[in-house]
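Sample intake sheet
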Amino acid sequence: MDPRIEEAKKILKTADHMICVAYPVLKDEKLLMKAFDGIGKAISLMIDSALQKEYGRIITHLDSKSDFERFTKISKSYGITHKEINELYNILSLIERRRKSPMNFSRKGKFIIMHENLHTESVNISDLKSHVNTAKELLKKIVSSRDFH
């Protein structure tokens, strides 16, 4: 099996553990940010693996819109729905905004992304559970595809 898929599995397992087990006990919002970053890394690894299988080249960073558009084009062959593509896009966009944000901080069970214009976005535990479930579903579909057997 592709080592990127194996790494994505481990990262998602860790993120899920942080969200569902560690955070409720420790109440440390930094765990939420770490889990969120892990979810993004896992999604990028899975998309990269699928693109490499389809196009025969390795994409080192899933930063460009064209790479995501390429993935969108092949997503039907993995049984990925339009709704799931939108969810993945929203997760990756939020991760990109967090990365470019001049300030991130945690407060009361969520983390806040502050933008240069002082606009804020927040991500809470239920958002993270939804994001990790979306990533797990993507993993299932990519692993079960005929290309990975």
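Comment: The mean pLDDT is 90. The CA atoms of residues 113 and 121 lie 5 Å apart.
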